[in-house]
Structure formats: C-alpha cells, structure tokens
C-alpha cells in the first residue's frame, strides 16, 4: 500500500556516519543512501473489516522505536506529531521502545510519548530490547546484567503510566463495549502468558499486541487481530532477494506486512521505526501503521 512520506527530525550527519563506521558497514553505506532511508518514515494506512466490531475503530501502531541507539527525542517528536495528525481512537506501542544503557533513564522518550493523544488511550508492551535496557542481560551496549532488573522494569512501568502509557504485560482490558485489548510479555526475554492476557475477554473482539510475531502459530483460539513488530522487516532488504536476516525462527514467514496465525487469525507485522545493530535501512522504510477497522 502506498505510504505518505515524512522526513522526521534526524541525528546529525556526522553522528550517523560515525555509527556506520563503528558498525562495520561497507563503503556503499557510507555514501549516505542507507542512512537517508533510515531516518525517513511513512504512514501506512490499512482498512480491514473485523467480525464482532460494532462501529469503526482507528488504531495507530508504533513499534521498535529503539530510543537511545541512533534514535533520540527529535526523531520521536516527529513520530508523535505524525501519529496525532492521524487522529486515532487508540494508540498502541509494540515493544522495543527503549534501547539504552541500563543505568540511564529514557527521559527524552517519555517527554515525547506523553504528547500522544487518543480518546481510548495509549497502551504498550515490552520487547526484548526493553529487557536489555532494564539490565536483565549483559551486552556491550547495555552494560553488565543487574540483579535489580525486575525492579527497574516495575519502575519504568510506573514511569510510562505517569506519561500516559499503560503497559500490558500478560494483561488486558476492555477499551470499548465491543473491543478487548490484550498485551503479552516479550517472547524472547519475558514470560508469555496468553491465558492471563485474555482473562476478561469473554465474547468481545480481541486485539492482541505481541512484540514478537513468533507467537502467531501458538494462539489458543481465533483473535480479531494481532499486531507485532520485532523484525524491522529485515531492516536491510536487497533487490530480488529480500531480507537476508529476519530475527524469527520462521524466517521470512513473518518478516513484515499482513500474515496469518493459528485459527486463521489475521496479523500485521510492522517494519517499525527505529534500528538495531547499525543506523541503516535499505528498501525497508520505517512506518507508523494506521488501521481503520470496520464492522463486517
């Protein structure tokens, strides 16, 4: 589907090129094409009927912001402005909001996220890089693993709530008389409990948020719609070949776009907004996905 191209506020060119060199990317990337694509984003719009929905619903889906690794508050500001301009009923964050050293605080991120506006609220889930930012595991970027990582996770949940974002970790709630919104913990680093997330759904249409699309084959019953991120669409895609690397045990199956899970549940895997590993994208534009969901 065609997208509306927007040029978000970027890092400096010098900082981008320094990141490319440090990441070991080749001379071609240093030409600037991949870096330019990395900091342009689009709004993709999708219209889909959902059985059980009684009236239209407009949902904005932002995922994989990766704040702290090549992405700072200026980029998030552009994404927030574009999201608010779509006037969604509901805003959902799909995980990997954070990607910074565990001793730091995502103040700039939360300052921008608190500007998101939707009458039904703003919700999110955690992703594997969020767990790195909690300090659950060691990496050169995050620093040493921390014994208090679960306490940091709780402190950040509270900080998100103060910024107007409700994190759903194996939880859900009715956001309308015909819609139950559920969110599960991260598939790689958390503890997924679908039954807990779906408690209270009853007869309502369910919109499920799972950072990682690898959950799709394990759905216990048909959902209305599942939204995921994590893969970045491969982040670097090549002509004819597609994405050489997709962080999924199912390979290309859930790389990006519309997919199908267990019980014929429709799912959408967003290309996300930020980057992991290197500040580079190719043929894989960052996206804010906006869904106009209609009664069937």
TrEMBL record:
Keywords annotated in UniProt: Hydrolase, Metal-binding
Alphabetized PROSITE patterns for the sequence: TAT
Entries under InterPro entries matching the protein: Calcineurin-like_PHP (IPR004843), Metallo-depent_PP-like (IPR029052), Metallophosphoesterase_sf (IPR051158), TAT_signal (IPR006311)
Superkingdom, taxonomy of origin: Bacteria
Domain Calcineurin-like phosphoesterase: from-to ranges: 57-233
Name assigned to this protein: Metallophosphoesterase
